[in-house]
């Protein structure tokens, strides 16, 4: 039986989830950053991997660096689910997909000691001092902050220096490009920031079409971002949307019911690479309904993306490009009476599961997504021992 979350020390309040199949040397930079700023006792790493990766090396490096945590390959995940009586929900975790971060969310949810989660990618390293402390500070932010809105209700997280680089991140709708931006000042209450999205230097997070237009065939980009491209922290205004990338993202426990990383890659439609993007759209809608905010900017990480075929990424994105243009509009009216993240998510799930999308290319994939979202809530209910009725009342951190 795989280790229980019962052995997580009480002071470890943050579950760091990393989907990885790479050589684990990237861990050294994050471990050193945590130790140098006194955060190591708060962190518990959950590495989600596959049997074909060097699982032994990952476990050895955790021990060498004295980083507390666990490594889960496919068989470990199956055993963990079975030990908790939720093996029937194994389909929620797609095989060989970045969306396996959802297993980390289940692992977090199973242990109430985790007040926070943090997603990292294994092709990043922290590029500023006190990386983890900056995320914690963002989640605790209260008082004035810049609030950003746009004429298209979509905010480009790279807007601050877009005149120089002209970049729009992966998942940003083509129809919303060129939107005019407006900055105002908003005052936040303690605890209202539910997600802290750090951005990236070096290789920007772009979709395959934009990478090809930038003249790059190896999955990266000719145009790069630097620290000077990012100035002030900001929040996305209510009733507006943005791209949420999970390579550098911290969040509060209470959003987990509305933050399932959607099933990409392992599906009959061949849809991939929109897992964190669409999950972020759903989270933003739920956060707006709850009066909460997503804070974007720092801490920065350096995205050292390895070369790979841009055309392979394009093949995964094309089946859902049309869907991505309208996904946000489909869920935009859902959950207006919701009193919790779970209830908001359930409303959006039903909208997708029951919708008529025959006019859209691969529209049936949206019905599939809605069905898995319903299953996600059922799985969380079983893990926590709550009845379905509890969804409507869960509005505070557990």
What does it look like?
By secondary structure, the protein is an alpha/beta fold. The chain has one domain (11-393). The chain has helices at 27-36, 55-64, 74-83, 101-109, 131-139, 162-165, 208-213, 275-290, 310-317, 321-331, 341-353, 364-384; strands spanning 14-19, 43-48, 69-72, 116-120, 124-126, 143-150, 154-155, 181-188, 193-202, 234-236, 241-242, 248-252, 293-303. Strands 1, 2, 3, 4, 5, 6, 8, 9, 10, 12 and 13 form an eleven-stranded mixed sheet that branches. A two-stranded parallel ribbon has the order 7-11. Helix 8 (275-290) packs parallel to helix 10 and helix 11 (341-353) packs antiparallel against helix 12 (364-384). It is globular, with a radius of gyration of 20 Å. The model is unreliable at 386-398 (pLDDT under 50).
Question: Which short descriptors sum up this protein?
Answer:
398 residues, 13 strands, disordered C terminus, two-stranded parallel sheet, alpha/beta, eleven-stranded mixed sheet
